[in-house]
Amino acid sequence: MTSRNTSATRRKWYIGVLGQHAPEEPVLALAYRIGKGIAERGGVLLCGGLGGVMEAACRGAKEAGGITIGILPGSSPDDANPFVDFAIATGLGEARNFIIVSASSALIACGGQAGTLSEIALALRLGKILAGVRTWKIEDHRGKKDFFPSFESAEEAVEYVFSRLQGAK
Question: In the beta sheet, which residues pair with residue 45?
């Protein structure tokens, strides 16, 4: 009996990109480079499918020839940004964050507000590979820090998640 998941037929990794809807331009530039890096390494970009960080990352991935999936909070696939290949309308609102995190092989948080923080918490809770770029710094009640690595550049974050995924084979 042959394994259906040989190295030749191995499924692509889904890399979740987390971030806010309306960030400043420097964060958008980082998100674009994250998306581009994911596509250049053969990953599938998975995100919330709307604007801001999500759109910039999808644009970067598309311009690098990648595939993008948007898990939308509303009930219309037409709400997706123009760089989403596969728009999945859930009608779940913020609860769709769980789908994004649980379906991702690894995640990169870029910028972010409360929604991004909730996705980071879910990723930590589920034990996902997670990297941050200009995002939340977390400290527990005892002062423990460094729950996930934070990087200065998009390229470092992308390198980190792919090296961790490759090491997890």
Answer: 15, 68
